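Model it.
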Amino acid sequence: MLIPSCSVAVRRVAVAVAMLCATGAIAQQALPAPAVTVPFVAQSVEIAEAGRGALDGLARSLSERGVRQLEVRGYASGEDTGDARKMALARALAVRSYLIDQGVKARIEVGANAQPARTAPKERVDVVLQ
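Modeled.
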């Protein structure tokens, strides 16, 4: 690999980075798998009965295990990504409130993600243990 008008040190760093990337030593970190995924109907923030059951079980488990932190990630899709993000946030906050009402004492971080309507459906909230 020849890089014109660079110092020897810069060339060495560039070669080292290229070798690390080629061997896979620099890999993207995967997001942790959710403990629970709560599905939502399009354009709705209401937690369905099945979602409440899953969250009830999770709340009991969190209390028994003494989990201190978790993350609630809301997802929504729509033509307007701004509106979709608001929907995702409202869903995540609804799940957060539900967990608090069930006695969860852990710190709960909230995130919202929006996707254009033409992509795969994202109408859900994931609860991830930290």
